[in-house]
Every structure is written in C-alpha cells, then in structure tokens.
Design a protein that fits this description.
Strand content: 25-35%
Structural class: alpha+beta
Distance between the termini: 25 Å
Strand order of the largest sheet: 2-1-4-3
Order of helices and strands: EEHEEHEE
Largest sheet: 4 strands, mixed
Shape: elongated
Number of strands: 6
Helix content: 25-40%
C-alpha cells in the first residue's frame, strides 16, 4: 500500500490515503484489496472481528504506521546536502533537482 491507490471506508465511500492509513493504525481494520479499475489499486477497510488473532492486528498497525510515516515524508523537503563521491562527482540539492538518487549507507 505504499503506492497510489483508491481507499474506501467501511461504507465504500472514497477516503484519502492519509485517512485510510490512519484508520488502519488506530482502529481494528484490515485492508482488503479489491479488483483494480483501470490499473489503479483499490483497498477497502474491513472491520476485524474481535475473535481475530492479536498478531494480525499488531502486524497491520505496524505496517500501516510505517506506510503513514513514509506518506507524510513525501511532501517534506529533503535536507540540505553537499558531497563528492569516490569518483569525484559532486552532488548537492541544486544539481540533483528532478533526478533519482539512491543513497546507500
């Protein structure tokens, strides 16, 4: 669920991604993947029964917290950086705008 998707609440009304993930982290729901429309994934909130294993709830909440954290980071500005790699190539915020960069630590 880290990609773009259409989120639906219990009553099949569309909700935004942030609200969908927040519902998964704070309430007893699991996401059910529905048949995609035009290649766009759809997920519906499905209330988890009280008899369900606590492990299921814990896993869903933990995964959803991670996805929510990453979603919130999408709109954040990347911290300032300025470095030279081992091959002498110089990188900073200005010369990497619009480029895909993978930082390996």
């Amino acid at each position: 669920m880290s990609s773009s998707f259409i989120g639906l609440n219990e009553k099949c009304s569309k909700i935004d991604k942030k609200q969908f993930l927040e519902e998964l982290t704070t309430k007893n729901f699991i996401p059910l993947k529905l048949k995609s429309i035009d290649g766009i994934e759809q997920y519906k909130l499905y209330r988890l029964q009280s008899s369900a294993s606590k492990g299921i709830r814990t896993t869903i909440k933990n995964e959803s917290l991670t996805n929510l954290k990453h979603f919130k980071m999408e709109s954040m500005k990347f911290p300032e950086f300025d470095f030279t790699d081992l091959n002498g190539n110089h990188y900073n915020n200005e010369n990497t705008i619009g480029k895909t960069i993978i930082f390996k630590t």
